[in-house]
Design a protein that fits this description.
The chain is α+β, with helices and mostly antiparallel strands. It has a seven-stranded mixed beta sheet, with helices on both faces. It has a six-stranded antiparallel beta sheet with strand order 7-6-8-14-9-12, with no helix packed on it. The chain is elongated, with a radius of gyration of 32 Å. The two termini are about 40 Å apart.
């Protein structure tokens, strides 16, 4: 599999500019004739001639549009033909091959072809991708920042005006004119935000919720002369609302704090060695960037000159500096501590590890837990049921029990009114606490994880992780460090070691496997020159194959070469000892291997022991040799190892481990792990440097390859599940008790309000305990 950098090199027009990205797609796919985009209607249509692979074409177009728009909105969607990234119109050569036409909100980019060709085009619609704009991702959290302060102010004003009105109103007597004024001000202050949220819901969804119940009860209380009870209700409701918004905003603040200071500019070093300050969004792969001590790395890059250390705590939660030298990767948003270094950009800002994290967190906040989806559906139906029940009980109390319909006949005893009891029932039966019981816990868990280097992709992952019984793990990069080092380069016969190293370096530059990173770093540190290939491909489960000038080069494991021209020679070479890895390289008569050392993670044994104490079974699924797997099992005392597995073999292993309803978590980092991550009950990807394919399939991402964070995530999930259950018991139990007393007429409206709002606050505060925990169950 080629790296992101290699992909960008193969398609230099793709990042940032939608027009040029689509033009590149048109050139690459001869069956694609035109693309029409209507941003206002969120519609994409494509025209083809021939028989394309429709699924692949749809995915490619959607991905192209999403990637381009995530950097800058292109002129194609803004009514111009300019590229917003470079602020320049299309070149004359580009106009020879394509046309751009606009009709209203639609823009079409098409090949230049004969006038009759469009008659034979076949048009079809594609789903419009959801864009995550860079700035919006940083600021749009779903909550109005600081709103809780205004809600708290309104609650305080409601309290002050309510007390003033109550103080000047004699008991059992209607309020004085000034008393009415103070009560009106109290109602206005206490009901302002409730009315605002009710209006937003009605205009957007057309349904009722608890805000309607609260306002209805307050107005109803005033209509029967119970002004003080209505003011009490609105004060407690607005006060509880301010506390809820504060709690949720604190959860969001934990996340926003990770990304508040993302770099906006970078220092570009041109070919003459001159320095220029440029916007981060204009950085392209291969650009030379200077980062001075104390500055932030603007994009994911690789050290090309100098040495330093990086503070990666904002991404990983690890406070210890990470040493960086030539060939080592650095991550966008992390801090360069002490050395001035030159770096080579690996990918655009929109594709950096930092932006991936932001995207994952945004996505996580939108993915609701199964239990939350149930309560969302239940709460809407429940609200209407309570309104119907209260309406029915009004007639039971009035006609069946003989209570006064509206005004109590005895001053100071409002409970003798059927309408008063109805209002009380409406309040105590409202599902405020139930609605907040699950999302408050889920958001708190996501925030705690983000702050400690654990990215949880939504409420479903929070719930599912606690159910795991078996933990399957990849070997390289998971239980081992993945930071491999080249131990030795050999050729057969000896004497051509430099050619082997150079060829291995040239091939591995185009791969993302941990072995490739080690060989690439070795080549750069030794100043090896790379070889240019005419063709390159990744052979799934085997290795890499490339050609140049009619000569075919191959790089991969021993088994791939056993049946080739060098099979006899390879059979006579002793395999590496356990704990070492080997990569074979051949090109015509040239044969050699690179031996790499891969150390077991220092914390791996402790993690495996902790898994056993938690009652979890540990299994390793690896494509490595059986001898290396057995060595790993004896060193770490694993429950089971399965070696020499190709990607499809890992998927089969996951399915067999899942027999009998057992829940399996798969931990991996590479492209070859992506299918098994998708097949597992919970997929866990290692680190911000994990492959795009692994991150896409993962439910949980462990930053900085910190394996011990899996235990923290598992314990966090258990705590979250327990707190969710506690919240449900508190919310439903409180409703059951209060409704029982309300139907018996044994609870006054103010006490019902206190019980109702108190349970809501308790639920939210109980969820916030997740922010203070240490991940232990």
């Amino acid at each position: 599999m080629t790296s992101s950098a290699a992909k960008q090199k193969a398609s230099p027009d793709s990042p940032g500019c939608l027009v040029r990205a689509l033009a590149s797609t048109l050139r690459a796919d001869p069956t694609l004739e035109a693309v029409t985009i209507n941003a206002a209607r969120e519609k994409i249509s494509v025209a083809t001639l021939g028989r394309p692979d429709e699924a692949a074409l749809a995915g490619q177009i959607s991905q192209t549009v999403e990637k381009a728009q995530s950097v800058f909105p292109c002129g194609l969607l803004q009514g111009t033909e300019n590229c917003e990234t470079c602020a320049a119109p299309l070149s004359a050569d580009e106009r020879k091959n394509l046309t751009i036409q606009r009709e209203g909100d639609s823009a079409t980019i098409a090949r230049v072809t004969c006038p009759t060709a469009p008659r034979f085009w076949r048009w079809r619609d594609l789903p419009f991708p959801k864009f995550v704009q860079r700035d919006a991702a940083l600021h749009d959290t779903g909550e109005h920042i600081g709103e809780w302060k205004w809600q708290l102010l309104c609650a305080a004003l409601c309290l002050v005006f309510g007390i003033a009105a109550w103080a000047i109103t004699p008991r059992g007597v209607a309020p004085t004119p000034m008393g009415y004024v103070f009560f009106a001000l109290a109602y206005l202050a206490g009901g302002w935000f409730a009315a605002e949220e009710l209006w937003e819901r009605l205009s957007e969804q057309g349904g009722l919720d608890v805000h309607f119940l609260m306002l209805f009860v307050a107005v109803g209380a005033a209509s029967i002369g119970a002004w003080a009870e209505g003011a009490t209700l609105l004060f407690l409701f607005s006060f509880a609302g301010s506390l809820e918004h504060y709690a949720l905003e604190r959860t969001q603040r934990e996340i926003r704090s990770l990304f508040r200071d993302t770099p906006k500019t970078a220092v570009l070093v041109d070919e003459q060695g001159r320095e220029h300050e440029i916007a981060v969004e204009t950085i392209r792969p291969g650009m030379r960037l200077l980062v001075k001590p104390g500055g932030q790395f603007p994009v994911d890059a690789e050290i090309s000159k100098g040495r330093t250390a990086a503070d990666e705590s904002n991404l990983t939660g690890e406070a210890a500096p990470v040493e960086k030298s030539v060939g080592d990767p650095v991550l966008a948003g992390t801090i360069n501590l002490w050395g001035a270094v030159e770096t080579s950009a690996l990918r655009p800002a929109a594709e950096s590890a930092l932006q991936k994290i932001i995207h994952l967190i945004k996505e996580a906040q939108q993915h609701k837990a199964p239990a939350q989806r149930f309560t969302d559906r239940f709460s809407a139906t429940y609200t209407y049921l309570i309104i119907g029940l209260s309406f029915a009980m009004f007639f039971v109390w009035w006609l069946g029990m003989g209570l006064a319909p509206f005004k109590s006949p005895i001053a100071g005893q409002p409970g003798l009114s059927a309408f008063y009891r109805t209002m009380t029932l409406l309040v105590v039966a409202s599902p405020c606490a139930l609605v907040l019981s699950i999302p408050s816990a889920v958001l708190a868990a996501i925030a705690w994880g983000a702050r400690h280097g654990i990215l949880i992709r939504g409420g479903a992952a929070v719930e599912k992780l606690a159910e795991v019984q078996i933990v399957a793990m990849d070997k390289t990069g998971t239980l081992t460090t993945g930071d491999l080092a080249v131990e030795k380069v050999e050729s057969f016969p000896p004497g051509r070691e430099n050619e082997v190293a150079r060829l291995a370096y040239s091939l591995e530059k185009l791969s993302t496997h941990p072995l490739a990173r080690a060989i690439t770093r070795h080549g750069k540190q030794h100043g090896l020159e790379s070889v240019a290939f005419d063709h390159f491909e990744s052979v799934t489960g085997e290795g890499l194959r490339a050609s140049r000038g009619g000569r075919v080069s191959r790089l991969g494991g021993r088994d791939w070469f056993n049946t080739g021209r060098h099979g006899n020679t390879i059979a006579q070479v002793t395999a590496t000892d356990a704990g070492f890895s080997e990569v074979w390289i051949e090109e015509e008569e040239l044969l050699g291997r690179v031996i790499l050392r891969d150390d077991i993670r220092p914390q791996a044994r402790a993690v495996v022991e902790e898994l056993r104490r938690e009652g979890l079974r540990s299994v390793v699924l690896t494509g490595d040799r059986q001898a290396a797997a057995d060595h790993l099992q004896s060193e770490l005392r694993l429950d089971e190892v399965r070696a020499e597995l190709k990607p499809e073999g890992k998927v089969s292993a996951i399915r067999s481990l899942s027999d009998g309803g057992r829940r399996v978590a798969m931990v991996g980092d590479g492209v070859n792990d992506a299918p098994s991550l998708a097949a597992a009950h919970v997929g866990v990807a290692m680190g911000a440097r994990g492959s795009d394919a692994a991150l896409e399939q993962a439910d949980v991402v462990l930053m900085h390859d910190r394996l011990e964070n899996f235990l923290a995530a598992f314990r966090l999930s258990q705590r979250a599940r327990r707190i969710i259950r506690q919240n449900l018991v508190i919310s439903l139990g409180t409703v059951a008790v209060l409704v029982t007393f309300a139907t018996l007429g044994k609870i006054p409206l103010p006490l019902g309000v206190v019980g109702h709002e108190g349970s809501t606050v308790v639920v939210v505060m109980n969820s916030l305990r997740l922010l203070l925990g240490k991940g232990r169950a």
